[in-house]
Design brief:
Blueprint lengths: L2 H17 L6 H10 L3 H32 L7
Helix pairs in contact: 1-3
Length: about 80
Amino acid sequence: MTDFMRWLYAHYILPSLRAADRRGYGEAISSLENDLAGDRRTDYDLALEFYAGEAFLLGLRTGAGLGASLCPPPSDR
């Protein structure tokens, strides 16, 4: 992960995850966050950072790929 992605995760992605509606997932997430200790918690945090960053980049790539299909075609004159 690049330095920029680490910064983006810490300043944008992680705060968004913390503020997200956890309805339906709250108990499972709390269980993971509270029951893991030591190295397992560190592994969980690193895995979350990696997969959240990759999901963000996937969203960017997908959005860029869909851009042309979302614009109306130019009209013939």
